[in-house]
Structure formats: structure tokens, C-alpha cells
Task: inverse folding
């Protein structure tokens, strides 16, 4: 009952707004007074929002992550993978209540991750995933208030050397791949070297993406299609290549393991994280070494910003050549 008789009188104990809403409690001398007050409070709560503070949000972060995935994430190209990473991070944080998810919740989690040997790149990505998820939940009117991760700065990462393969290394690698039991790895590697494509873009190619001397890459990182010309020799090899199934439009099947094995057998030492990406770096580096144009390279690689492509500018034979003739000493004959 909402009204009970006690030693001190008749006590009203009610929550007109329902479970989780504000609770009202008061004691009266008579039952009539108690009933009158109960009715008055209930009426005010129903008719006047100022009487009833907003219910406390007791939902936990994993529930909100699920809402994000169902309403937005599953439409993203890498949405499933992102959702999986977000869930693992939130579980490691103890799946906090959303209203109690603060900056310190993440920074303490991040510190533990770093102590366990996780790289700065990884925790930066986790930060980015969670921040983007919360921002989208705000857009969906699911998250109210500020994003607690907006005020946290990501760690600055020193850029690693972009490793690329020299001609002799390319020959050794292709020789190893030609001896592989996986018949697709060699062709996928050649496509990456000929077009600068990412491994996944080449491995997932379909017959419909081959067009009059060009390969169109559709399922890209930036979600923008691009078409790259290839030589007749490469195109003929692709067309003659035995597909996994004649009834399927797929040109290749999974062959990353075979590529990794060929790299190891070739004794090619690569920086961490540059296993297949070394092929993209190799294309870009040789393109510039051979006198290619940086703007053209940007379009071939599909980079949104030229700044990303400029990493390869120093490979150009004429890069910063003006330094030899335009420095102040060049005009002095006695120095």
C-alpha cells in the first residue's frame, strides 16, 4: 500500500512516475489528510513535468552499443568488426551504466591495456570507435548530454618507416608464390603490385569489376569506387586465371595465409602491421621513383587527402632538388 499507519501517524510513500522516478514520502495525523496529499501529488506529477525529474537512465553501455549497431553500425562496411571490438572493450570495463560512463572510466581502462603490452595504435582505435559510437547515439537521441570521450586526447604515434620491396625481393616473392599450393595468392599479389590495391580489395574482386583494360575497386576503405588501368598482360592473366567456381562471380578465394608463408620463405623482414600493405607501399614507392605524379598517385590509391599520399613524395627523383640551386651558398663563388 502507498499509505500505511504507523506509530507517528499515516505515512504516504509513493512514486507516481513509476519505477526509477522520484519518490515522495510524508506523514500525516489523519488518513484523510494522507489521501488528499497523495491525490494532489499524483495530479501534479502527471500534469506538470517540473514536478517529476527525468527518470534515471539505468541502461548499461552494452545495451546502448547494441542499439548503435542495430540502428547504424550494421550498415557500415566494417560495422560488424567495430561492434565486436566495442563489445570487448566495454566488457573489459565491467559494462558500466551509461550515466556513469565518464572520462576516467576509459582512461583507467586504457592505462591497464598499455600496461599489458597493447600498442598505442590499438588503444587509439578503441578510443575512436567508442567516441564515434557515442556521437552517433547522440544523433539518434539515445545518448543525452556530452560525449565523455571528446575531451580525451589520443596518443601521438611516431610514424614508422614505410617499407617497400626492391626488385630482387619482388622476384623472390613471386617465385615463392608460384610454388604455393594456393593458386590464388600469386595473382592477388600481382594485382596489388600493379595497381596499389589493398589486399582485401584485390582478394575480393569479381568478374564484373574487370572492364576494358581497367580494374574497378568497389568495396574500398573510403567507400568510393576507383578504376585503375592495367597492362594487357596482367588483364589476360586475370581472365585466364582459374576461378574458385565457374558459377560464382568471385575471382579468388582466401589466400592471405599463403602470402604470409611466402613472405617468411623469402626471408623478407617487414615492420609490424605491414604484411600485405607492403605491396601497396611498393607500388606507390616505385611509382614515384620512376617519375610518377603525386596527384595521379593520390587518385590511383584512392586517398581522400593529398597529405596521406605525400608520404611517398620523397621517392621522386626530383623531390626537393631546388635545395641544391636555391640555397644561399649557391650564389657565392668563394664558399
Result:
Amino acid at each position: 500500500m502507498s499509505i500505511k499507519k504507523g506509530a507517528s501517524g499515516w505515512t504516504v510513500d509513493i512514486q507516481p512516475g513509476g519505477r526509477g522516478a522520484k519518490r515522495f514520502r510524508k506523514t500525516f495525523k489523519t488518513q484523510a489528510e494522507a489521501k488528499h496529499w497523495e491525490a494532489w501529488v499524483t495530479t501534479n506529477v502527471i500534469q506538470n513535468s517540473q514536478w517529476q525529474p527525468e527518470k534515471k537512465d539505468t541502461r548499461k553501455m552494452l545495451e546502448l552499443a547494441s542499439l548503435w549497431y542495430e540502428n547504424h553500425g550494421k550498415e557500415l562496411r566494417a560495422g560488424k568488426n567495430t561492434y565486436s571490438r566495442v563489445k570487448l572493450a566495454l566488457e573489459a570495463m565491467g559494462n558500466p551504466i551509461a550515466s556513469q560512463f565518464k572520462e576516467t572510466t576509459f582512461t583507467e581502462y586504457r592505462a591497464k591495456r598499455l600496461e599489458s603490452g597493447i600498442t598505442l595504435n590499438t588503444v587509439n582505435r578503441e578510443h575512436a570507435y567508442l567516441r564515434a559510437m557515442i556521437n552517433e547515439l547522440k544523433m539518434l537521441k539515445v545518448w543525452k548530454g556530452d560525449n565523455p570521450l571528446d575531451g580525451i586526447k589520443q596518443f601521438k604515434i611516431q610514424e614508422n618507416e614505410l617499407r617497400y620491396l626492391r626488385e630482387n625481393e619482388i622476384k623472390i616473392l613471386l617465385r615463392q608464390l608460384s610454388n604455393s599450393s594456393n593458386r590464388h595468392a600469386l595473382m592477388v599479389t600481382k594485382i596489388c603490385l600493379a595497381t596499389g590495391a589493398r589486399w582485401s580489395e584485390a582478394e575480393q574482386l569479381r568478374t564484373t569489376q574487370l572492364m576494358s583494360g581497367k580494374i574497378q575497386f568497389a568495396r574500398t576503405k573510403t567507400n568510393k569506387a576507383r578504376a585503375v588501368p592495367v597492362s594487357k598482360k596482367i588483364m589476360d592473366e586475370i581472365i585466364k586465371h582459374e576461378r574458385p567456381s565457374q558459377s560464382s562471380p568471385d575471382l579468388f578465394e582466401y589466400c592471405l595465409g599463403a602470402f604470409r608463408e611466402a613472405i617468411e620463405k623469402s626471408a623478407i623482414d617487414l615492420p609490424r602491421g605491414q604484411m600485405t600493405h607492403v605491396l601497396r607501399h611498393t607500388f606507390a614507392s616505385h611509382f614515384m621513383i620512376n617519375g610518377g605524379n603525386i596527384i595521379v598517385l593520390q587518385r590511383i590509391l584512392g586517398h581522400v587527402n593529398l597529405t596521406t599520399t605525400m608520404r611517398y613524395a620523397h621517392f621522386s627523383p626530383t623531390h626537393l632538388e631546388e635545395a641544391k640551386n636555391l640555397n644561399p651558398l649557391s650564389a657565392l663563388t668563394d664558399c
Observations:
- Residues 120-139 form the longest helix (20 residues).
- The two ends are 101 Å apart (CA to CA).
- The beta strands are 3-6, 9-14, 24-28, 210-211, 214-217, 226-229.
